[in-house]
Amino acid sequence: MIIGNGMVASIFNKYDKVDNVVIFASGVSNSTETRGVEFLKESNLLKGVIEQYKESLFVYFSSCSLEDKELNSTPYHIHKKNMESLIQRKVPNYIIFRLPNIIGFNGNSTNIINFLINKIRNNEEFVIYKNATRNIIDIEHLYQIVSYIIDNKTYRNKVINIAYGNNIRIIDIVHSIEVFLNMKSIFHIENKGIDLKINDHDVAPIIQLLDIEQPSILTLLKKYKSQV
Question: What domain range is 147 assigned to?
Answer without folding.
Answer: 2-224
